[in-house]
Amino acid sequence: MAERKTARVSGFHKLGQAERLEVVAAFAGLGEEHVAQLARGSNIDAELADHMIENMISTIAIPVGVATNLKIDGIDVLVPMATEESSVIAAVGNAARQCYDNGGFTTSMSGTRMIAQIQLLDLADPARARLVILERRDEIAALCNACDPTLVRMGGGFCDLEVRLIDAPSGTMVITHIIVDTRDAMGANAVNTMAERLAPRLAQWTGGRSLLRILSNLADRRVARARATWRCADIGGEAVRDAMVAAFEFADADPYRAATHNKGIMNGVSAVVLATGNDTRAVEAGAHAYAARDGRYRSLSRWEVTREGDLSGVLELPLAVGLVGGATRIHPGARALLAILGVDSAERLARIIAAVGLAQNFGAMKALATDGIQKGHMALHAQNVAITVGAAGEEVGAVARLLIERGTIDAEAAAGALAQLRGA
Ligand code: MEV
Which CATH number does 113-215 carry? Predict the structure, then answer.
């Protein structure tokens, strides 16, 4: 029987970088090219960077780590995360460890459909125009599908049509939504092309004037869902559980808290989106718009106590990520990091990201509802401050320890500690 891979890698954080990469490479069966790419820092050369954006002068590197302990839909995964923030990756691994023996995460997805919007103005008879457009559904489907035969061959393409009337100060706008299954592509290019091709026809059929033609980042036909249950005994008992539920209720009731609570979720989500070369801004805009979908900005996650007295967490958010097209394909670092995940569809990627978001939220809520987050942040923060003042090699840990012992972590204290160490 083939050996089952486990993401429960104990002592991973204690290994050196090269050893960690070896563990990850063995776990994921990475090829030499990907390993070499990651060992070099998963960066890109100037020529490629120059093709990706305009006026390129440099690149900026962000650390990439791997979250351990995640079991998602019965499969163990090591998840690469690109983040500049300390404690984020450790929090995911800790949260995942605490529900691993209870089955880990279960995920699902509403589909991989994207929406593009076409705005029509100057219509004297918007209600009639709406029906004129809806009557042309078959023609619209054919026109959209003709824009992207490859997508259609992959099982994607036009799915649905909606026409909305929006009252604006200058008159009623007719807003057409084309809903397109973009499969393994994030889909912005595909749906924008369709919208641009369709717009003049809509104007011609209705007598209106078309203006904007662009996808919506409120990708609510592409919602990824994750849930997990943490046994009460595994998370420190009823007091911790109840404090976490109270923390959620605060976020769900108050937009000031919800913004921070959801930011914590996005710490995990955006780190995987970035590592895999996907569009962090698209996902973030979609998540926050979704959090306000019933007219008030709320928590993206929900936390409850189960009949058995355990803690259940669920998360739902739009996740427009792809595996084909854009940086996911051309950025060699993103390709190597995707190989660690071993995903074969954009849907699986989105579902993994949702599970990471939920784990991240668990970690933040548990810390906030118990010790506060500063305790956990201290060690890495102290190391960062030590590096800022010029500590190198073993000095970094030594300065950080002195700062923590003395209870003051700032540049002045770090400079003093470093001078003392060097003097000694
Ligand atoms: C910090 O980056 C994220 C948190 O503020 C999230 C939260 O408050 O839930 C800790």
Answer: 3.30.70.420
